[in-house]
Task: inverse folding
């Protein structure tokens, strides 16, 4: 990252910015929010998440005041608008756990705001269409998403539509669930989590032209989860091995054919999938968007967040 664009804090320096933000999550709740091979300690909650929660609360409050100015100027009733927080980063970097913990913290702010969490998985093209377009091995790359649908979802949400719907994705089926929807009804805050949400051209202009509207046009705040590529690769392989022992054992799993691989062979398959697909996506598409984020959280090899970079420019 360009050093002049960000102010970087050690974990101790960032923790000092917590001020008097109270603990609102207990140990049992924190355990229930953790991912399969990810963890968040109470120390990390206090030293990283709570200062971030304080920063976000200040931003949300300021956005509400600004919206009120516009409504007053136009002579219309004050209308609450959804504040959208985007979370980006690689496969296996821990976005899902981070998003769930952040959602729980925001929901416990004074006034108990309504917080919804939507992942971009639901906006992937259906498996049949990916197969037809020969994009199955490009799943998660920008071209594998129904980007116009994503933009329409966010535009309607920001416009104050009473109800917007996002498709539901099944990791077990490796596909969109037909006729199933996540219904979002004017939340105070929406967390929008996905690999490529900060892509500058993700909306896809017609005829190869630059997109006139892109996803980040609808984001009020954005966070990028970062780590060394070698660490993410190791986390991905460990997660693959864990899934092989659990989810892949189900006959309905798309990856059921991996269930009986010997440990060494399973580890090799995980490494190959990482290097041929996910690492390529990270280096070509995801990592280049890091500097678009307002905050970059950098992880150590044990998954703990070791430093925080706050964009100044």
Result:
């Amino acid at each position: 990252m360009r050093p002049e664009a960000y102010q970087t804090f050690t974990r101790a320096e960032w923790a000092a910015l917590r001020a008097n933000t109270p603990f609102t999550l207990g140990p049992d709740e924190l355990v229930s929010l953790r991912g399969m091979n990810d963890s968040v300690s109470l120390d990390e909650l206090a030293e990283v998440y709570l200062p971030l929660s304080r920063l976000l609360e200040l931003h949300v409050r300021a956005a509400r005041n600004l919206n009120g100015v516009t409504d007053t100027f136009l002579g219309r009733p004050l209308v609450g608008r959804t504040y959208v927080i985007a979370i980006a980063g690689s496969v296996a970097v821990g976005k899902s756990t981070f998003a769930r913990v952040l959602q729980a913290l925001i929901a416990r702010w004074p006034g108990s705001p309504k917080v919804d969490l939507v992942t971009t998985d639901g906006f992937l093209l259906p498996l049949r269409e990916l197969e037809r377009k020969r994009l199955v091995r490009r799943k998660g790359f920008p071209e594998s998403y129904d980007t116009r649908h994503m933009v329409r979802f966010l535009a309607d949400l920001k416009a104050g539509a009473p109800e917007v719907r996002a498709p539901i994705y099944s990791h077990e089926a490796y596909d969109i669930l037909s006729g199933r929807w996540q219904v979002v009804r004017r939340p105070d805050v929406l967390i929008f989590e996905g690999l490529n949400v900060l892509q500058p051209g993700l909306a896809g202009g017609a005829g190869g032209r630059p997109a006139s509207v892109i996803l980040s046009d609808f984001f009020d705040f954005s966070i990028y989860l970062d780590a060394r590529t070698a660490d993410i690769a190791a986390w991905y392989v460990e997660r693959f091995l864990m899934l092989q022992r659990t989810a892949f054992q189900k006959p309905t799993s798309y990856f059921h054919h991996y269930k009986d691989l010997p440990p060494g062979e399973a580890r090799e398959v995980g490494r190959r999938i990482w290097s041929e697909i996910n690492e390529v996506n990270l280096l070509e598409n995801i990592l280049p968007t890091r500097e678009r984020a307002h905050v970059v959280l950098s992880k150590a090899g044990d998954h703990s967040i070791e430093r925080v970079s706050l964009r100044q420019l």
Notes: The chain has a mean pLDDT of 92. The domain at 3-311 is CATH 3.40.50.300 (Rossmann fold).
